[in-house]
Design a protein that fits this description.
Elements lengths: L10 H28 L2 H27 L14 H29 L6 H26 L3 H29 L5 H28 L9 H9 L6 E9 L5 E8 L5 H13 L3 E7 L1 H7 L2
Parallel strand pairs: 2-3
Antiparallel strand pairs: 1-2
Helix pairs in contact: 1-2, 1-4, 2-3, 2-5, 3-5, 3-6, 4-5, 5-6
C-alpha cells in the first residue's frame, strides 16, 4: 500500500513566482495596449485571462506565506490548510476563465473579426515565453502540491492560449481565416474547464475533512486489532489536516497503557500517519463513553 508523503513548496520557487507575478502584470498591460492599438479583441481577452493567471500566482504566494505560520491558541491546527483554500480559489478562477474563453471563442466563430495578425503574433510570442517560464517554475512542485498544480494548469493553459493566438495570427496573415482564433479559444477553454472539474473533488475532500482515498480505514482497523492486548477498536475517525498530513483518532479497548504507543507505532510505520489521538478504555466502560 502506498501513501502520500509530506512535501513543502521550495521557498526559492515562491521567490521566483513573486518576480513572475510582476512580469505577468506588465505583460497584461502590454497585451491590453497592443490589443487596443491593433483592434484585437482576442488579444484583449488574452490579457484579461493573463490577469487571472497573475492573481492565481498572488493567491499561491499568499497561501504559502499563511500556511508556513506557526499554530496559535485559537488556530491550534496551524495554517497549512490555507494552501488548500488557495487551491480552491485558483480552481474557481480557472473554471471562470475557461467559461469566459468558451463564450469568447464561440462568439468569434459566429462573428469573426478583422485583426492585425502581425501585431498579435509579436506580442503572443512574448507572452508565450513568459507563460512557459512561469509554468516551468510551478511545475516542479505541482506533483505534490494542489495549489501549485492549479497554478501550473493556469499558466499551461495561458501558454497554450498564446500558441493559439500565434496560430490564429498566422492563419489571418497567410489565409485570411479569422474564425480560427475562436476555434482555438474553444479548445483551450474546454481543457481548462475539464481540468478544473477533475480537480474539484480532491480539493473539496480536504476541506470537508474526508478520509484520504489511498488509506483503507478497514485495513487500519484490522492492523490495530492484531496488536497483542487490543480487544477492540472503534469510534474511528480519519481526515486530512492539510493536503499531505493525515489526522487519526480512535478508541482502543484494552488494559495496558503501553498499547497507546504501540498503536501509534503501527499507524506511523504501516500507514504514514504521524498525528494520532488514541483513547484507551476498558471493555466495561466503552459502551457508556461511546453513547
Amino acid at each position: 500500500m502506498t501513501h502520500a508523503h509530506k512535501h513543502d513548496v521550495n521557498p526559492k520557487t515562491i521567490a521566483y513566482l513573486t518576480i513572475a507575478f510582476g512580469i505577468n502584470m506588465l505583460l497584461t498591460l502590454v497585451e491590453l495596449t497592443a490589443g487596443i492599438i491593433g483592434g484585437s479583441i482576442a488579444l484583449i481577452g488574452d490579457a484579461l485571462h493573463n490577469t487571472s493567471d497573475a492573481f492565481s500566482i498572488l493567491v499561491a504566494i499568499i497561501a504559502y506565506k499563511i500556511g508556513t505560520r506557526k499554530a496559535t491558541s485559537r488556530f491550534s491546527w496551524g495554517f497549512k490548510r490555507a494552501e488548500t483554500i488557495g487551491s480552491f480559489v485558483n480552481l474557481i478562477l480557472l473554471f471562470i476563465s475557461g467559461l469566459y474563453l468558451l463564450y469568447e471563442g464561440v462568439f468569434k466563430i459566429i462573428r469573426p473579426e478583422e485583426i492585425d495578425g502581425g501585431l498579435i503574433i509579436g506580442v503572443s510570442v512574448l507572452a508565450l515565453i513568459i507563460d512557459t517560464a512561469t509554468a516551468k517554475l510551478s511545475h516542479h512542485d505541482a506533483g505534490h502540491n494542489t495549489n501549485m498544480k492549479m497554478l501550473f494548469l493556469h499558466n499551461l493553459a495561458d501558454a497554450l492560449g498564446s500558441v493559439g493566438v500565434i496560430v490564429s495570427g498566422l492563419c489571418v496573415l497567410l489565409l485570411g481565416w479569422n474564425f480560427v482564433d475562436g476555434v482555438i479559444a474553444v479548445m483551450i477553454a474546454c481543457y481548462m474547464i475539464v481540468q478544473a472539474v477533475l480537480s474539484f473533488s480532491g480539493i473539496v475532500a480536504v476541506l470537508m475533512d474526508a478520509a484520504p482515498t489511498d488509506i483503507d480505514l478497514e485495513a487500519v482497523k484490522q492492523s490495530l486489532l492484531k496488536i497483542q492486548g487490543v480487544e477492540d477498536v472503534h469510534h474511528i475517525h480519519m481526515w486530512h489536516i492539510d493536503e499531505h498530513e493525515v489526522g487519526f483518532d480512535c478508541h482502543v479497548v484494552g488494559c495496558d497503557l503501553n498499547l497507546i504507543p504501540a498503536v501509534q507505532r503501527v499507524l506511523k510505520d504501516e500507514f504514514d500517519i504521524d498525528h494520532s489521538t488514541i483513547q484507551l478504555e476498558r471493555k466495561e466502560t466503552c459502551s457508556r463513553c461511546c453513547l
